[in-house]
Amino acid sequence: MTGRLLDDDPQQALAHARAARALAGRVGVVREGAGLAAYAAGEWSEALSELRAARRISGSPEHLAVFADCERGLGRPERALAYGEDPQVAQLSQDQRVELVIVLAGARRDLGQPEAAVLALQDPARRTTERRPWAARLWYAYADALLAAGREGQAREWFARAAAVDVDGETDAGDRLLALEGVVLDDGDTHGDGDSDGDVPRSDLPTDAELAELVQGIPPLAAGTPAFASEDGIESAEAAVARSAEVEGASGPPPGPVAPPPFAAPPASPTGEDDELRLFD
């Protein structure tokens, strides 16, 4: 139950986790669940206490990044940085190391050290390729650190890379990139009062009379001209594509260069394989 509620209702998940802890406080997975629920609910001290207990029981260092982030939440970035020197860092998987280095970079920024945050993320970000599952989060964190350090041009590049691989919408890299380009996103508030009323007419839309005049100006199809229809009244998708290709071939390609797609992903590694990501060497 705690796991199912963790994303949607962290407070309720924490209540279930506390109940489970009261019944089975010596079970590592129960203490781990309670710690993660407390972390999701923003109860930093409780999360630290529960996850430390889980670590004593299981011996696993897998949540070092959560420990460090809790220290940041408690306003203790110096203690957060100490987790980068933990003897068990070498036992972390690569994705766990990435999460830890992102948190440690955040601690550097908490201490007013934006350039140190950039340096912490620079090597991992450059070594990571787009096929890595953590690429979007790592590249986003690196772009954010670059922006905080005043390197706007480089930040644009890395926000674009993050947006290109963030198919699950883990970050708002696309919105951040648009903001840097000066694009203002319309939130639907046309009155400036925080209210969006769809019944209020907009002056920038054409009137009914103007629409009728536009429609009258469109020449009708010549008699007998098929409009995406075959003998049985339905044209297959393959036939439609083929006919469109014939029309395009007859008229020739459109003039001018073709614009590249927005947020183009970075090129793959020339060797065809991901570079090894090394952290804390």
Descriptive report:
The protein has helices spanning 2-5, 10-23, 28-40, 44-58, 64-73, 77-82, 94-110, 114-127, 135-148, 152-165, 173-180, 208-216, 237-251. With 281 residues, it is mainly α.
Q: What are the salient characteristics of this protein?
A:
globular, Serine Threonine Protein Phosphatase 5, Tetratricopeptide repeat, 281 residues, mainly alpha, 13 helices
What is the compact description of this entry?
Among the domains are: 1-60, Serine Threonine Protein Phosphatase 5, Tetratricopeptide repeat (Alpha Horseshoe); 77-184 and 274-281, Serine Threonine Protein Phosphatase 5, Tetratricopeptide repeat. Helices cover 54% and strands 0% of the residues.
Detail the topology: elements first, then pairings.
Blueprint: H1 2-5, H2 10-23, H3 28-40, H4 44-58, H5 64-73, H6 77-82, H7 94-110, H8 114-127, H9 135-148, H10 152-165, H11 173-180, H12 208-216, H13 237-251
Helix pairs in contact: 2-3, 3-4, 4-5, 5-7, 7-8, 7-9, 8-9, 9-10, 10-11
Helix content: 40-55%
| CATH architecture tag of the domain at 77-184 and 274-281 | Alpha Horseshoe
Q: Quick one: biggest sheet?
A: none
CATH class assignment of the domain at 77-184 and 274-281:
Mainly Alpha
How many β-strand stretches? 0
H-E string: HHHHHHHHHHHHH
The rounded Rg comes to: 27 Å
